[in-house]
Amino acid sequence: MNRNDLINLSRTRLHEARALLKSGHYSGSYYLCGYIIECGLKACIAKNTKKYDFPDKNIVKKSYSHDLEKLVRIAGLELDLNNEIKKDQTFGINWAVVKDWSENSRYRMYDKKSAQDIYSAIVNRNHGVLKWIKQHW
Fold it and tell me: What SS3 state is found at 67?
């Protein structure tokens, strides 16, 4: 899997999450929303890998995570994220909604509001988490 694969997967999960949300499958939509961001952050990590370089073993191991805050650090985006949160209060609220997602959400049920909140936090045209990530792809 390479950077372009991860970007395409993020886009695919976005379409799927939207379809699930519209059809009333809120738990599935919520779950996929986290993977939109995970794949996007992993695309950022892949971008940092130089062609023909042998990747650092510790970075590779740490990259196999679903923890969004850890992935931000591994991608080297922590300072940029903190600056964006300070600069844009709405983005900060959106990040707060998204960062609490976990792959364990697959074992939970989510209502319409929760699914709409995380989806909106991701896709917000001016302050969305996905918009911010795309700047680093």
Answer: coil
